[in-house]
Structures are given as C-alpha cells and as structure tokens.
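Researcher: Let's try something more involved. This one mixes different molecule types, so please make sure each is placed in the same coordinate frame as the others.
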Amino acid sequence: MDIFQVGHALEWMAKTNEKVQDNKEYLTSLDQAIGDGDHGINMARGFEEVMKKINGVAYQHVADVMKDVAMTLMSKVGGAAGPLYGTAFLKLSMTFKGSEVDNASFSKGIEDALNGVKQRGKADVGEKTLVDVWTAVANAFRENKGFGGEVILQAAKSAMEDSKDIKATKGRAAYLGDRSIGHLDPGSVSSFYLFESLAEVINEGA
Amino acid sequence: MKKIINDPNQVVQDMIKGLVAAYPNSVKQLPGTTVITGFDVPVDNKVGLVSGGGSGHEPAHAGFVGKGLLDAAVAGEVFTSPTPDQVFEAIKAVDSGSGVFLIIKNYTGDVLNFEMAAELAEAEGIQVEKVVVNDDVAVEDSSFTTGRRGIAGTVFVHKIAGAMAEKGGSLNEVKAVAEKVVNNVRSMGMAISPCTVPAAGNPSFELADDEMEVGMGIHGEPGIERTKITSADEIATELTGKILEDIEINRNDEVAVMVNGLGSTPEMELFILNGKVHDILTEKGINVYKTFVGEYMTSLEMAGCSVTLLKLDEELKELLNAESNGPAFHS
Ligand SMILES: Nc1ncnc2c1ncn2[C@@H]1O[C@H](COP(=O)(O)OP(=O)(O)OP(=O)(O)O)[C@@H](O)[C@H]1O
Ligand SMILES: [Mg+2]
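Model: All components are placed in one shared frame. Result:
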C-alpha cells in the first residue's frame, strides 16, 4: 500500500466495528474486573453509530471520514473512552486534511492523535491505558518506512498483552492500585482491535 | 437478570419520560436530549448550576434539580458519563448571562466530557467554572493518579452551591463555597450485594452470602477489602472511623451527617446505622447539626450504604438551611 484511500478508511472502520461487536461482552467483562463494566457496551454503541453515519456517504477525502468518526464517537460513546477516541480521530482528520495520506502522513497522524489523547487524559505511557497501545503503534510507524501491517499488528498486540502486568495509575482501574495488576486494560484491548483492523486493511491493500 | 424494564438500551430515555411525568410542574426534558432542567431556566441574574453523570444513581442527579439546587442534570447511559454535546446543551439552557457552574464527580469520564463541554461553551462566550468532588476516603489520594472518587457527598455540593446561587452569589462566590464543601466533606461506603447494569445483563461482581465489600464504589468498582459481614454497629464504626482518620473534626465542631442507601437497603437498616453514627460522634463531642437518612446517591439495586460527614461553619450552616425544593430534596 502506498496511499491510504477513502475506501481503506471505510474498510478500517467496518472491520473495527465487527471486532468490537463480536467482543462486546469480552470488553465488558474486562472492564467489570477493574472498572465499571461499561467499556464494551460504550464502544459497541459508538461504532454501531459510526457505521450508520459513514455508510453510503460519498467521501472525497480520508480526513472527512475521520472527522465523522470523531464526532460520532465523541457524542455517542460517553465515559472516558468517548472523548479520548474522539480526540484521536479528530487529530487524524486534522493531520490528513488537504493532502494524500501516505505512510509519512499516517505516521504523523498517529503521533498527533497520541499526543492529543495524552493531553486530554493527562496520562503518559506505562499507566495501563490505551495510551500504551497507541504509543507502541506510533513507534512502529516511525521505525517502519512503508505501511507495515505485520509490524503494526505485533506492536499493538504486545502492548495490549503487556497491559496485564502494569499497575494502573489512570482511569477507573487506578482506584484498585496493586489489584489492577494481572488484568488486561479494556481500553488497550479495544485499541488493539482498531489497529488489528488497520493491519488487515493494509495487508489486503498491499 | 430480572428487572422491571422494557429494553435494556432504552432505560435512560424511559426513565426520563416517567420522571418528567411525575414532576411536570418543576422539571422538564430538553427536547432531543437526556438533559433535565428546572421549569423556568434560565433564571434571570442567577448563576446556572449543572451536574450529571452516568444514570443508575437515582435520585442523583435529576432529583436535585429545583429551586435552591441544580438548574440542570445531564443523564448519561447507565454508569457512563454523558457526552460533551449533551452537557453543552445543558449549559446553554441554564445560562442567563451570569455564568454556569459545573459540579463534576471525580471520574475520568465525567471530568473529560464536562471539560470538553466547558470548552465548547467558552468558545461561545459563556463563562464556565467547575468543581470536582472527590469525597470517597476509601480510595488513596494521590496527585499522580486519578485521585479519589466522588460519591454521596456530591449532594451537599448541589445543596450548598445551589443555595449560594439562589441568593444571588456570583460565579466566583458559588465556586468558592462549592470548594469549601469539597474540602470539608468525606464519605465512605460498603456493599453486601452487587448490581447489574441492564445492558450488561449480569452482576459486575459477586459476594458470598456472608461477605461484604468495604469501600465499594457506586458503580460496582471493587472496594478496599472483602470481609465477613459484621453488625451494623461495627460497619458504622468502621466507616465513620475511616472518615475521621482522614479529616480533622474536633470536639464541639458541628457536622451534617448523611447515611445513604445504595438502592436496596431498607430504611430500617439505614436508621440502625445512623443511630450508631450519632453515638460515635456524640462520644467524641462532635455536634450533629443536621441528619439526612435515605437514598440520595444509589447504585442501581446494590445493597449497602455510605456514610458522609460534612464539617460545617456558619456560612455552610446558613446555606444548608436555605429553602430548596427538588423532586428528591426539600428543606
Ligand atoms: N486518563 C486516561 N488517559 C488515557 N486513557 C484512559 C484514561 N482513563 C481511562 N482510559 C482508558 O479508558 C478505558 C475505559 O474506558 P470506559 O469507556 O470504560 O470509561 P470509564 O472510565 O468507565 O468512564 P466513566 O468514568 O464515565 O464510566 C480504560 O481501559 C483506559 O484504557
Ligand atoms: Mg468503564
């Protein structure tokens, strides 16, 4: 893949939606263990609305898809995840605006999204939040010069798995202190689905 | 799951419909939103007060919309913070030009969504200030983490900030007194049975017949320890003791007490607890100025309670006594 097109963006969202719907109960059970048990429900509701919003729209630019995704997640997800994912997609949209989305621009977009999320949530890497997965993916993009599906997938996967051993210091799981250790972070898992989907789109489009 | 509902995904809308039908002369729903406001908002020359959060804590927060209380409450999905667009609608609806004050419980979701709404409002020239309530002493307080949770003590912020706004206080005066309440209010809860989020369908945790969870959060977040259930007196002693370790309340100080039920604890049990709380305070020479026993901040059908102490001064006493009238709060 050289250029990430509108069709790829739509496919990315469709795949993410599928994974989130299929794993709605799983995400919720992860959040029941160390949070309040709404993450799967929130994400499923949000991505269902995203699909309703973007289906059948004749988009001219990837940035416009990202903007609609951002606004929908922001107004439909709620919880901590809504503003955070909303911010991430809004940053992608802003970075992609006005030019073709090649690897360099996608890489910059992920970096900007990560910084936006960190600023909004005041979390840094290593606090057992979705920031960990986004950081790993941003690094993978930076180090890999072309769109590398496998690299992205592995980076996201290992960061997601590593979240298990971290003690949460941000988000609702932080209330548990040491008892958050040994559980996967639900937001890291939902971010993993997002990047697993992206990797699939890249691999199929290669 | 056994619940009296129609559709797990419609509980918030269905609840709001029934709530508005029950109090047609005092509250209304902003069309197309999950915002409940007072009937006559915006009130001329008055600071508008907005609170809200996930649903499932009824009567919080819509039950505290009314004269001398909140101007609007924003209801999110069950246990999920409402979204910025909804909070923004509430802010616009209650702004009379005197500014809007947001009362936020300290959860990441609530803080993020209300902050984004405040930014949207400020971009439209509305003055917005906020307070974040973090009264739960069960959770360790640290500036490096998310910090403490906001629970039943929030109701005292609604009441006192509401009274200040009602008597014509400026946005800064409302903020100052709200911060004073936050600095002087502490709570702690416990649970003996879990609750089920309708859309999840199963309880978020399990407790054996003879177990209790001390420090339980109001969303089913685990507490600080799980032990064998003890007597009401011992529970009152543990909760009150934790609070008094955390805040300095001396002989001859005056406090307001709230013994709050989490959803399916009978008033009988709340009164039993309250009796012991009073004994403990009396023994320490602390004067109870006013007591509130009942359901103020629930957690669906969870069984359990929380104890809240608010240390009072003359200003807080006067505002606590001021007239107020909302579906779930009169004085
Ligand atoms: N400050 C933060 N920065 C980045 N990510 C965060 C932060 N706080 C929480 N998260 C992520 O959000 C996920 C939880 O999202 P969820 O939608 O369940 O929100 P929530 O905390 O339950 O919100 P609410 O408090 O409104 O119920 C966590 O697993 C974590 O990855
Ligand atoms: Mg959650």
